[in-house]
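Z., the sequence and structure:
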Amino acid sequence: MEKIYSRTKLLREDMVSGFCPGCMHGTIFKMIGEVLEELHMESKVAMVLGVGCCGLAKEYVTYDNTTCPHGRGCATATGVKRANPETLVFTYQGDGDLASIGLAETMSAANRGENFTVIFVNNGIYGMTGGQLAPTTLVGMKASTAPKGRNPKEHGYPMHVCEILNQLTAPYYLERCSCNNPANTRKTKAAIKKAFQNQIEGKGFSLVEIVTSCPTNWGLDPLDALGFLEDKMLKEFPLGVIRDKSKEEA
């Protein structure tokens, strides 16, 4: 009998995921493990984890990783990569960690064209710390710090990270993806693989934004949260390649 699928060995077999039902972190980490195995980088990788639900991954993965102060993922990754240039270094960060508390670090690393990869998980809310308003929270969307919904006059508008970074000269590859259905999940895995391959080839800074749901802090069950993602989040954050310098070089 032909074997067509094996679970990635880069996720611990003795641990059960503690992510909430309907959360897409587990799917993303499965894809990251599969990509690392396909690229034969299992022993040459270091993940820098942001603070938040994404930081729980340290309990589930078998490869090298470190956590850092809130928002300092790109600054930490800069040091790790410069000290270990042959290592595949990537950050894994949520919207509050990357686009609010860590906005300066993110922008500066992208502007320098640092040769590492950013996996940016955008669920429009602070997940672990209580459902506060995030930089990517939609207009009208409720949060614990905006109980009447996001009001642009008071809170500003949602930030579009890929488009903001696209104003800089240095970034090599920027793409926004999702895991809302099988087709988009396959595209997300391909984007992660491309971003990692860019780093291996020394191309510079790549960021893959993944628009996801947070049923717990959205106050929805997993199926309704998926519907909100497709009906609302993806209209504000349309999927697609924002920049790919490889096409310019072709």
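The mean pLDDT is 94. The first strand starts at residue 45 and ends at 49.

Let me know what you think.
H.
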